[in-house]
Design goal:
7-stranded mixed β-sheet, globular
Length: 318
């Protein structure tokens, strides 16, 4: 039974790229790191999606989280369509996940991370929004309300918060991705566009205000919300005034927070800016993963990196 949560995340299943099928095991290896990192920093629950052909390979990763009540698995048995390059089936799968997850979260959460890839980690960089000036470990739960108030808004007035991304080099074999401190100096750029065009953002949304979602922003949301204000009428009488206020979006400046996107190769010469903000989490994350799976991290990552999907004719190929 799904309970009530403050922050949840939608987790798209590991998928097979038609151009790089050899990367499937890497995606499975990334999945366990991302799930455990998200729990470590405050995500209360995951809605995890599997598709026909990939569910067996990720079963071992998911089972500890399912048994602990930390995740809900939704399996999508997609009909096999003819291989038609004009059909963006991968895009359709993403749309199904995004919209289904919104509906499932409606009565069970407040904030939803809808579309992070398993190599994307959000880092909060500014503790000034918290009472003691320090970033709490559970910032993926507490940070969204704090960001709203930092911008002089109540959380109920914010329909979404977006953040930019930096490309980080992947870590050395057998180590956690967050152990890599090297990134590009500039914000991530959009594929196929001039170098000055930034990549589309990732975001979190307030499910109470969201009506339709896409990979990079809300497609529809409530434009207004109710705000209650308690006004003292006399020493013994208080009046509550309810007013209608517009909802807003916050685009987070990278000085406050951004996404670490571990996508470019280890040792890439473009990754020459040192950024160790997440490196300090490596020991805690290693301990959490080893405790969850009962195996030392290098051997575990090696085993997951060798995961194989079912035969290609049964796969959701993106």
């Amino acid at each position: 039974m799904v309970k009530q949560y403050h922050s949840v995340a939608c987790a798209r299943d590991a998928y097979v790229s038609s151009s790089h099928p050899e990367n499937y095991g890497r995606t499975v290896k990334d999945m366990v790191q991302w799930l455990e990192f998200s729990l470590l920093h405050g995500i209360d629950h995951f809605f995890v999606y599997t598709f026909k052909g990939t569910e067996d390979a990720v079963k071992e990763v998911l089972m500890p989280y399912l048994k602990a009540g930390l995740a809900t698995r939704i399996h999508v048995d997609v009909p096999q369509y003819p291989r038609d390059k004009s059909l963006d089936m991968c895009g359709r799968h993403f749309d199904w996940v995004i919209r289904d997850c919104l509906c499932r979260a409606k009565s069970h959460a407040t904030w939803v991370i809808p579309s992070f890839d398993f190599d994307e980690y959000f880092h909060l960089n500014n503790g000034n929004m918290f009472p003691d000036g320090k970033i709490p470990q559970d910032y993926l739960r507490t940070g969204w309300d704090a960001i709203a108030r930092f911008h002089n808004k109540s959380p109920e007035e914010i329909h979404s918060i977006s953040f930019k991304r930096y490309h980080f080099a992947r870590s050395a074999t057998g180590t956690l991705e967050i152990a890599s401190p090297w990134r590009e100096a500039h914000l991530q750029e959009r594929l196929g566009q001039p170098d000055t065009v930034e990549a589309l953002p990732k975001y979190v949304y307030n499910v109470h205000l969201a009506n339709d979602a896409w990979w990079h922003w809300l497609k529809d949301f409530d434009p207004k919300t109710k705000r209650s204000l308690v006004i003292p009428m006399s020493p013994d009488i208080m009046a509550t005034v309810v007013s209608s206020v517009p909802t807003e979006h916050i685009s987070l400046n990278e000085s406050i927070g951004y996404v670490h996107h571990y996508r470019i190769p280890h040792g890439d010469p473009q990754a020459k800016t040192y950024d160790d903000h997440l490196v300090s989490d490596a020991d805690k994350l290693t301990e959490a993963i080893e405790q969850r799976f009962g195996q030392k991290l290098p051997a575990l990552l090696k085993r997951f990196s060798e995961a194989s999907p079912q035969p290609a004719q049964y796969l959701v190929v993106c």
